[in-house]
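Forwarding these from the shared drive since the link keeps breaking.
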Amino acid sequence: MYKKIIFNNLYALIILILVSCGNQNSSNSEDEMLPYSPTGKYAIIVSTAPDYSSGAHSVLGYSAPRSSANNLLPTGSDLWISAFNKNFYRIEAYGTNTVTKFSMQNPVKPVWEFSTEGTENNSNPHQIVFVNENKAYLIRYGSPKVWIINPSALVESELKTGELDLSAYNDSDGCPEPASAIIVDDMLFIVMQRLSPSGGFPMAPVNDTYVAVFDINTDIEIDTDPFLGGLKGIKLDVRNPFAKIKHYGNYLYVAGADGTLSNTNNPIKGGVQKINLNTLKAEAGIIAPTTQITGLEIISDTQGYFIQYDDWNNCSLKRFNPQTGYIYPNNVAGIGNSGTKNLQAIIKDDDDLLWLADWSYIDGGMYVIDTATDTIQEGPLDIGLSPMDVVFCER
């Protein structure tokens, strides 16, 4: 199995020098390399070049005025990011299939880099969700096996400690495409896209979407409707859930992107659907029905946001009411529908500010939006390359 742990002091020094030369916000001092952030919190962002030839990560201060350290440890372009407490995990997906752990004590020096490949090829890791420092779940989009891992492992042979089997949800391509997950009330919820070849499209939303539920104490799947029979998970009406699953109050929220604009269902099965945590059942019907939602965040029972994808270079940020499904007609803060906007991800922070990753090659960057007024607090903030995904981490 592939393994690479970097502890070479000379190599680390070279990387530090290269980063400091390429970014005025970085230096050879580990403390000085971090942007100023009085709260001790930071946004960690993965980004790519406009032609997808390369990628890197950035560290951005949590509080305004925000500064950043950019283009850290350049790598490939298919990137995701996860974080827990004082560590973040840069996930290199299709074609590379590795996870690299970093500590906020030194965000350019890997603690370890391990492969996510098992017996399959191109496991395509997407996300890590954490129980604690010693237990987490690695969501691998290209495999029906979710790995149970020990994030504190220092050798690759100790990383994987078990696995969850989702093969009951396999479709015609032999994989249910687990795309995102979340832990709430000692339960792990795994959202599967279940795409299959159809009508000339290699990945089409022709199968029902399911959310599998596991007890994190026993790692046994929970039968959400034992009287129904068949698959144990929660069946949804939305299809192709591209955005990450979100939680607020007594509900989980899943957004469906349906298919590409030329490959949607009739009627369209894009929009938002709620899962009741008390009953472990989906609420009937799709709220906020629309074509394609590629990002989602919930601020309150009555305030939510999503990224609507209408076409390449034609995305917009929308506000909606998660209780009624009403979609506000105007774009939030005027962001979108300009013929240049490619919006990638949204996430709220502890202060209910909304962070938006705008990948656009014209006026792209990170936006921070005040959800009390739906106005831009800061942005677009330049992070070197174009932002794809963002999480928060503590120093």
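-- next protein --
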Amino acid sequence: MQLTYVSDALLHLTKVCFSLTGKRTLLIGGATRFMKKLLRFALVAVLATSALPAFAQTRTWSGGNGNWSDASKWSGSNVPDTAGETASIQFGSGVGIITVDNSYSIGGLDIQFGNTLTIGTGNTLDVGTLNFQGSSFQNGSGNLVASGAATWQTTLLSGNGSTTFNGALTINTPKTGGAVDGRTINTNGATTWSNQANPFVMLNSAVWNNGGTLTRTTASASSFDNLELTGGSTFNNSGTFVKAGADSFTVNGGGLFTNTGTVRADAGTLVFSNYAQSGASAQLVLNGGTVQLSSGSININGGGLSGAGTVSTAVNLAAGTYVGPGSSPGTLNLSSNFNMNSDAEFRLEIAGLTPGTEYDVLNVGGNANVTNANLAVSFLGGFGPAISDAFTFLNVTGTATGMFDSVVLPTGYDGTVSLVNNSYVLTITAVPEPSAIGLVSMLGLGLVARRRRRQS
């Protein structure tokens, strides 16, 4: 009996029996019964393996308008509807409107240049990878979910459905800027958003929910490099929003940027027209960059303000919130007024006697009010100050008003805060003494040693 294999690759699998690589024909007639059984087993394994697709199948849209479920519109008359299939909708096949008329879960979607993907109400298109490129569009009341890597280079996402990116996402809209009209965008993975030549516009109550880490970076400054929240649109950050790059990035348009997670300014300037922070874990962190508000004050209504950098607008801390200058330790600069409401907390970290590098410093360019606020002090790196050591931790250019209601230091330490030449100074007045327990223990060890010497 003669068996013909299609390729050397399949034949290679029979090496569990013996090496036959490079030969296309097997002759079983002269083999022993034992070898026949092994060869039959290998043959079954080869046939079973060859029945499975080695790679995801690409189904290409033939062009024009139509429903996703119409097999005649796809190459090979196969509707992409499995995780092993990728849907490709290209410009070369003709611009069209593709209506997703059911729910599907597929391996990937690549849609480009002028085509429109419309997802019907109640339907969800779940894709592994996603590539929106050129002037392609998405609309409809249904939902699009990308679980893997995705690229967003499209012009417009519209409709009152949602588009969710659960994996790594790259946003790069260098020519058009991009727009979201009435749609909800969810970014839950690591998102990199690079520069653009025109504003990125959100309108008609569009919503962007960021629960992952979104890094906004640009190569050069541009007056158009901004996010416009218009028509009641909002950006809600519960993850981490990072401003990187030396340029200025502005969130304007009158819509609200809400932060219940972390907003971090690593470089350049981050400008808000309307910023709201709430929640005990929320943070506005300066990591070398600058933050400012177009008008009014930055109100910290939950969490805190920390880091090293500059806030070039007034800051107001609500009760229960905190300011923590530096990055263990460092200097935080506020260009305008600073107000600490009753029970707001100043967190001061001390690792030595040098201001700004060994202990935290806050410089206020306007007026400062600390009436009934609290000072919480911690020592770092095993540092322990001596009595009379003084730390100038808050410098005020304008008028300094009020005094801290309480000063909390590590156990055994005590200190007082005074206002000297418009600067608040912490002076150490007491340091820990050896504990009574420690003394008793030392005496006890001495008695034991004496008894042992007497016994010897």
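Residues 83-430 form one domain. The first strand starts at residue 2 and ends at 4.

- D.
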